[in-house]
Specification:
By secondary structure, the protein is mainly alpha-helical. It contains 16 helices and no strands. The C terminus is likely disordered.
Length: 346
Amino acid sequence: MKQRLLWIDFLRGLAVLGMIETHSVNSFLAPVYRTGGWFTFLSYLNGIVAPTFLFIAGFLQGASIRKNWDAPTSFARRFRSIGVLLLLAYALQFPWNSPFDGDKVWIALGRIDVLHCIAISLASLLVLAKLCKRLITFDAMVGLLTIGLILAAPFVWNSTENFPAPIAGYLTAHRGALFPLFPWSAFLLAGALASRLPRMFAVGFLLTTALGWMLKFTMAAWFESQTYATRYDAFLFRLSVVLLGCALCSWLLTTDRLLTRAIQWCGARSLPLYVFHLILLHSGLGILLPPLRDLYPKTQTPTTVFWLFLLTLSATLALTWLWQWVLTHTIRLTRKGWPMDYRTGE
């Protein structure tokens, strides 16, 4: 495996563990324990998980576009992969228990999650790469779009909540969306820009941190009236943590130990891990296992939540390994190649 992919898989593996922990806490922890400094700190760390996934997806897509800029590229094949990802995103939100309930289906269409955001953002990068004749023009357009998404987020959130749910979900979180394009897509686009200067993560961390604190003090009065997710300083602080993680992983990941390989294994298979842990928590495995959130309602202590996190993680890893085993043996029998590289998304 290339060294570039080693640290990316390691960082994404850490994000996978954080993702499962985040959803376990959100699904099981009783409200009475959601107070105190420890929970505030944990919530902030959990808020870095999605930006990390988005940033890495953009970084890999940007690096691939740069590497193949002058070579023929199968955009149709990439768009098909993105289309499959988008269908999977809608399938995970679809109310399968009430498929003919129009109201629930309509609400589900507006619950835009991180996979929706990744799919649309990756498609946008491909469109820009197709339209731009020069690489420097591509970088300029991605930079302008990134800044535009960040600056427009608070205004879009306050002006589009009356749009139909399937459209509003991509613009604002007021209708139940989790990761609307404003401003979450900007993390992915920032990753695409970072792929131009992959050795400048530490510099980026210092710049975004400094700019974040400057905005926090100079625009404090205006930020008080804004949702935290649309605040410019909040975006910069989250981005700075992601950049710090990239710098540490890319510089310090020099050993090949068992724990390191295990985390990299998770990072290389982040998509099936994402899907299976959501199924276990919210949908269940049919008659074999009901949803864990139904077996353990949101009344659990932190100790119980920790053990439920380990249970969810173990079951998710087992299902992912089984899924890979089935795919591998099916491919051997049919003599076909992998439909997608989990590391690069190609």
